[in-house]
Specification:
3 strands, Ribosomal Protein L30, Chain: A, alpha+beta
């Protein structure tokens, strides 16, 4: 195996390990700021400040990444957001 091939394999392995999924929360015209904030605190373990900032970003930008991690870690969190009536998906 040449040095080039070994280097390429190492890069591909690092890219696989570094790939994190993210929960993206989307804006809607239904939920109140308080509901979104409380749900982010509950479902994503946000601090009140983090939750408030995310809710403002979602309101003004239309979406916000609210949590990153492995798919297995994010799936139950995203489910809690959806069960609370929020619009979210794992990317």
């Amino acid at each position: 195996m040449s040095g080039q091939e070994k280097y390429q394999e190492e890069v591909e392995l690092l890219e696989e390990v570094d790939k994190e999924n993210q929960i993206v929360l989307y804006n809607d015209d239904v939920n109140t700021f308080d509901h979104v904030i409380n749900t982010l605190i509950y479902a994503c373990d946000h601090t009140p400040e983090q939750a408030e900032q995310c809710s403002l970003i979602v309101h003004y930008k239309g979406k916000c990444t609210v949590k990153t991690g492995s798919f297995d870690e994010l799936k139950p969190r995203c489910s809690k957001l959806l069960e609370a009536g929020l619009s979210a998906e794992i990317l």
